[in-house]
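FIELD: query
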Amino acid sequence: MNILIIDGQGGRLGKLIIERLKEFQLSEYVTAVGTNSAATTAMMKAGASQGATGENAVIVNSRHADIIAGPLGIICADALLGEVTAAMAVAVGRSSARKLLIPTNRCNHQIIGASETLSMNDLAQKAAEQIRQLCAEK
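FIELD: result
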């Protein structure tokens, strides 16, 4: 399975997800795409197989992913303080990949019913566990 992790800002959520996936010792290929170079760097340091930065990287890698994980904002134009372009949001939304969207309740996006008590570490753990389960089902 081709796993694509997309994140922006400082890349903390993507970094945490990749660290958890490494703990599970999955053999799957993990591609990290940051909306900026700081996010990409953080995810690469966490152990991603490869990384890229920017709008075109999101568009191209969304085409080939089996699983896409990242904050909810990756499907919302202008999210992450404007780092997600409309083209990025469309590419992720149109991808046939299974999308695991983490409700961070930031940038004016709030998921009603999402637990306010879960930390970013908890959310990353849940996302990594779901990815592991999907990989086991392949």
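FIELD: remark
The chain has a mean pLDDT of 92.
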